[in-house]
Amino acid sequence: IYRYIATVIPEESMFICNIGVVITFVIVPIVSLFCIKRNYKKVLFASLVVLMVNFTLTAVKVVMPIVYAKGQSDLINYITYAQDTKVPISNFIVFGMEKPSIVFYAKDKITFTDENYDTLKSYLKKKETYLIVMKNRNIINLTDDLNYYVIHKGSRYSLLINKKPPKEEQKSQKVQSQLKLEQKSIKNIKKG
Question: Which of 39, 64, 94, 167 has most Cβ atoms within 10 angstroms of its Cβ?
Fold first, then answer.
């Protein structure tokens, strides 16, 4: 876990995190015990305020970048992509998950569907262009006969489109072939 945190958190935040750990688990308990023993209520209160401020700073500097890196950044990028293309935001489909943050970032009505693959297939077969956000693990359940292209595969979520993407987006074909290989290997594992 520490190795992962070290890769996600910038070095200056790790320094703050280490100081926060020392303050939280060493200095504040010692001061608190001393204050309880001597009945220094005001100093005890002040040490607990320092503890709460430390928790807040640690959450802002350490936890928030991890949350952002583990998915929210992908969702923000997908909404931005949808707004930059000619695809209407009403044709932006969120498949199999409820993420209210997507509505916040889009500032418009978004279509949410449950994990019903028949509904997803109907969107993929339509003549209009649709952008679909789904969890990476759900892509392997899509069959080869469906017409979809993976525009981007993020850390937790992927962005699919039901029409051939513009030339600058065709780099997704590499991701597409990688996903096809993953699907085949999973099918072989299920058979074997």
Answer: 94
Cβ proximity of 157 and 78 under 8 Å: yes
Query: What does the alpha-carbon distance between residue 17 and residue 5 come to, in Å, rounded to a whole number?
Result: 11
Mean pLDDT is highest, among 40-44, 47-51, 162-166, for 40-44
Query: How many Cβ atoms are within 10 Å of 9's Cβ, its own excluded?
Result: 19
Dihedral angle over CA of 67, 104, 74, 174, nearest 10: 160
Coil/strand/helix, residue 182? helix
Of 109, 121, 181, 123, the C-alpha closest to 146 is: 121
Chain segment 144-157, per-residue pLDDT in tens = 777 788 888 888 88
What global pTM score does this model have?
Answer: 0.59
Classify residue 112 by burial, with Cβ atoms within 10 Å: 0-12, 13-18, 19+: middle
pLDDT at 23 over 50: yes
Q: What is the spatial distance between Cα 103 and Cα 69, in angstroms, rounded to a whole number?
A: 19
Give SS3 for 26: helix
Three state DSSP letters for 122-172: HHHHCCCCCEEEEEHHHHCCCCCCCCCEEEEECCCEEEEECCCCCHHHCCH
SS3 call for 108: coil
